[in-house]
């Protein structure tokens, strides 16, 4: 059964939920989960702040500590036009208190899971807590290699500033002999369209259904990626299709794409989010393309399968439950131990489990 907070009932919450950021800590704390033994939160903002008791196990799967409150605050304010003026001061004040709340509520989490080693480092920096890396699941059964390659490059993403989609268009505008197809919609679409008007080799398809994206991923010469991501699903989906990846070499992609220095490379990593660096990387890719095989790409992508994720999560939760039960026994007077032994002997998850979805 899904439960929502009071924010769900506020005007425009579905479309403009970010406006209610100052209320989100309060909202998540109003969820009464006292009737559950195990809480699993999936968090990129406030979900890990849900209240839990001493007899409950709270495991938080962290996609990132609140990006715009920690190391990316200045970038987000700048890209949102909030780097100057009264609105900027108010935004910084709100983020200051969000940051304090975020750090304080880390104490309510019994075990952290990071979606990449990159995010594990952020967790340690923000909360001074260790974490276990379990990569997210990628549907490698749906994304498969099929059909012949065509002579075009593909980029697909939401058109938001940190994805740097207009920069990719600008790079291909400077290489008129190379064709780019771009899939995606969002605030930066207008910027990309303005650049593409002068580049007949660039085609912007806007939003497309999953079947169209899959068709292009299977037939593209390479997948181009310019974002600094916490993990990054799209580059893995491309590799699952046997398609090489040309990606900005920072963030989670360093854990998901093997560069040309690897024995079995699956792509090319470039060092700067600039047109010059990207165009150089494309040239480097074309010179070394014969070294990157569809088999290597597919094999690498299978490291992130859904089955692998389910197995690792199940093992982690069962291990933490066993540990928590042993700690509970150790706290009991010795005469009560025998009555509680069955808890430790069982490898089954308790019946009262609640997952808190990503917020």
TrEMBL record:
InterPro entries in the record, alphabetically?
Glyco_trans_1, Glycosyltransferase_grp1
Q: Which UniProt keywords apply?
A: Hydrolase
Gene3D superfamilies referenced in this protein's UniProt entry, alphabetically: Glycogen Phosphorylase B
GO terms assigned for molecular function: glycosyltransferase activity; hydrolase activity
Q: Does the keyword Hydrolase apply?
A: yes
Residue ranges constituting the Glycosyl transferase family domain according to the UniProt record: 149-302
Task: Spell out the protein name for this chain.
Answer: Glycoside hydrolase family protein
Species in which this protein is naturally found: Pseudomonas syringae pv. actinidiae ICMP 19096
């Amino acid at each position: 059964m899904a439960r929502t907070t009071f924010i769900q009932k506020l005007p425009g919450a579905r479309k403009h939920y970010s406006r209610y950021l100052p209320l989100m800590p309060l909202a998540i704390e109003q969820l009464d989960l006292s009737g559950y033994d195990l809480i699993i939160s999936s968090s990129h903002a406030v979900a890990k702040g849900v209240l839990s008791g001493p007899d409950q196990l709270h495991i938080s799967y962290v996609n990132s500590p609140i990006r715009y409150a920690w190391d990316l605050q200045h970038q987000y304010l700048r890209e949102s036009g909030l780097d100057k003026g009264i609105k900027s001061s108010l935004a910084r004040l709100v983020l200051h208190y969000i940051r304090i709340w975020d750090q304080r509520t880390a104490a309510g989490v019994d075990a952290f899971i990071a979606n990449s080693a990159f995010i594990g480092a952020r967790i340690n920096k923000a909360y001074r807590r260790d974490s276990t890396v379990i990569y997210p699941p990628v549907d490698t059964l749906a994304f498969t290699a099929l059909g012949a390659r065509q002579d075009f490059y593909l980029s697909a993403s939401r058109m938001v500033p940190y994805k740097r989609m207009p920069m990719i268009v600008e790079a291909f505008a400077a290489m008129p002999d190379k064709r780019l197809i771009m899939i995606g919609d969002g605030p930066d679409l207008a910027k990309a369209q303005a650049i593409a008007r002068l580049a007949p080799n660039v085609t912007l398809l806007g939003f497309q259904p999953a079947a169209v994206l899959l068709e292009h991923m299977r037939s593209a010469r390479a997948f181009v990626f310019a974002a600094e991501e916490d993990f990054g699903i799209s580059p893995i989906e491309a590799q699952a299709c046997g398609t090489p990846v040309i990606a900005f070499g920072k963030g989670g992609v360093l854990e998901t794409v093997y560069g040309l220095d690897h024995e079995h490379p699956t792509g090319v990593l470039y060092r700067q989010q600039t047109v010059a660096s990207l165009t150089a990387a494309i040239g480097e890719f074309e010179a070394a393309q014969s070294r990157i095989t569809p088999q290597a790409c597919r094999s690498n992508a299978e490291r992130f399968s859904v089955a692998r994720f389910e197995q690792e999560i199940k093992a982690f939760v069962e291990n933490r439950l066993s540990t928590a039960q042993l700690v509970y026994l150790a706290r009991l007077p010795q005469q009560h131990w025998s009555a509680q032994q069955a808890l430790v002997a069982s490898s089954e998850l308790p019946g009262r489990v609640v997952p808190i979805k990503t917020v």
